[in-house]
């Protein structure tokens, strides 16, 4: 064996992780389901900020590839419907959770994780951090992370299992962005959205979203699982993706670092 054997073994472990995740992503009982086409590992050290609505760069997606993301949950009445729609099509998504809601509905958070979805972070109470003092913003972020980690693992740590974060309202400050990057937490924006914070029918939302996707052709899509109109619209949107040959990409963090990794 040439080169550094530890580096070689670590690279092999990462490759095996990605291969296993890809295999899991393609498993589906329904042959005509949309499915999840591939898994994309997002490393905060190389992709600290993604999403063209907020930043100059986004994820390396091909034409007709989309990443489905949901904000502001969990909310039992609607999140359960969203999860069913995703399960029916064997699709995996990323949920940016409000810490307070996660602490009130921990069983729903664990259900999301058990179904293979990526669990990410969205503050404690959805406060706009642009208008908060840096120390208050840090508390809002950490309290949210701790609540989600407690729901998932019964451990109130501020070191997130999945180091993905999205700012409420996409409102950021240079100080908070820098703090998150130093902590190794990737900040997600979005490439397109359904504007589902506005009241509309599921049919109107579907039309708006598909028209935007026709123009963009790919990207990180922002939706909100607590919105009843989005939960009602989602099955039709997933069918649209299938019928129009879009492919769903599931984003995950890198595997945990080994002792050898940390020692280098």
Task: Report what the structure shows.
With about 260 residues, the protein is α/β, with parallel strands linked by helices. The chain has one domain: Glycoside hydrolase/deacetylase (TIM Barrel). It has 9 helices and 10 strands. Strands 1, 3, 4, 5, 8, 9 and 10 form a 7-stranded parallel beta sheet that branches. Strand 3 (about 65-70), helix 2 (about 75-90) and strand 4 form a beta-alpha-beta unit. The longest helix is centred in the N-terminal third of the chain and has 22 residues, at about 5-25. The chain is globular. The protein starts with a helix and ends with a helix. The relative contact order is 0.20.
What CATH first level would be assigned?
Alpha Beta
What coarse outline follows from CA principal-axis ratios? globular
Helix content: 40-55%
Q: Give the total of domains.
A: 1
Query: Stretches where pLDDT falls below 50 for ≥5 residues?
Result: 1-26
Query: Can you tell me the CATH superfamily?
Result: Glycoside hydrolase/deacetylase
Oligomeric assembly: single chain
H-E order = HEEEHEHHEHEHEEHEHEH
Q: Largest sheet, if any?
A: 7 strands, parallel
Strand content: 15-25%
Tell me the CATH topology: TIM Barrel
Helix/sheet category: alpha/beta
Radius of gyration (CA) equals 18 Å
In the CATH classification, which architecture applies? Answer: Alpha-Beta Barrel
* Termini separation: 20 Å
Q: What's the pLDDT, averaged over the residues?
A: 90
- Number of beta-strand segments: 10
Q: How large is the count of helical segments?
A: 9
SSE layout and pairings?
Layout: H1 5-26, E1 38-41, E2 49-50, E3 65-71, H2 76-88, E4 94-97, H3 99-104, H4 106-114, E5 118-121, H5 134-153, E6 164-165, H6 174-182, E7 186-188, E8 192-193, H7 202-216, E9 219-224, H8 228-243, E10 247-252, H9 259-263
Parallel strand pairs: 1-10, 2-7, 3-4, 3-9, 3-10, 4-5, 6-7, 8-9
């Amino acid at each position: 064996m040439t080169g550094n054997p530890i580096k070689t073994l670590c690279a092999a472990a990462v490759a095996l992780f990605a291969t296993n995740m890809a295999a899991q992503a393609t498993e589906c009982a329904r042959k005509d389901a949309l499915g999840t086409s591939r898994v994309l590992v997002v490393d905060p050290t190389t992709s600290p900020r993604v999403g063209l609505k907020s930043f100059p760069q986004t994820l390396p997606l091909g034409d007709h590839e989309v990443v489905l993301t949901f904000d502001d949950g969990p909310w039992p009445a609607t999140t359960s419907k969203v999860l069913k729609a995703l399960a029916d099509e064997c699709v995996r998504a990323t949920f940016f959770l409000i810490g307070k809601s996660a602490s009130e509905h921990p069983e729903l958070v664990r259900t999301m994780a058990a179904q293979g979805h990526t669990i990410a972070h969205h503050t404690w109470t959805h406060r706009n951090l642009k208008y908060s003092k840096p120390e208050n913003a840090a508390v809002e972020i950490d309290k949210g992370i701790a609540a989600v980690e407690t729901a998932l693992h019964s451990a109130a740590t501020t070191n997130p299992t999945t180091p993905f974060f999205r700012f409420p309202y996409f409102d950021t400050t240079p100080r908070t962005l820098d703090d998150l990057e130093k902590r190794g937490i990737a900040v997600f924006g979005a490439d397109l959205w359904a504007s589902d914070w506005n009241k509309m029918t599921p049919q109107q939302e579907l039309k708006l979203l598909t028209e935007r996707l026709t123009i963009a052709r790919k990207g990180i899509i922002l939706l909100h699982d607590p919105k009843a109109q989005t939960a009602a619209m989602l099955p039709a949107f997933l069918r649209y993706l299938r019928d129009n040959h879009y492919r769903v990409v599931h984003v995950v963090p890198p595997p945990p670092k080994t002792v050898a990794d940390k020692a280098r």
